[in-house]
Amino acid sequence: xxxxxxxxxxxxxxxxxxxxxxxxxxxxxxxxxxxxxxxxxxxxxxxxxxxxxxxxxxxxxxxxxxxxxxxxxxxxxxxxxxxxxxxxxxxxxxxxxxxxxxxxxxxxxxxx
Length: 112
Known about the structure:
About 55% of the residues lie in helices and about 5% in strands. It is mainly alpha-helical. The protein has a domain at about 1-75. Strands 1-2 form a two-stranded antiparallel sheet. Helix 2 (about 40-60) packs antiparallel against helix 3.
């Protein structure tokens, strides 16, 4: 189990490093903790909370003490806000509508 965890962390770290170094992607690891080029306290707190809570989940899984309830709470805490944001977002484009326009032309003819 620990070997699988180490390989998974290694693959994630390698993928992150390659994305950071690639000229074709616009990925910067510092964007996870900065806003406008400055360190954001809230971003740092969120990253620390995510790392700590994820480590607790992984540790409980390794010890076989992870329950569905605890995993559900973790999932709700980290995935729930994203789902709510997607479901509650308003579309940027107005919905398409169909308009029917009828033109009536009336001609009158007069004779002398």
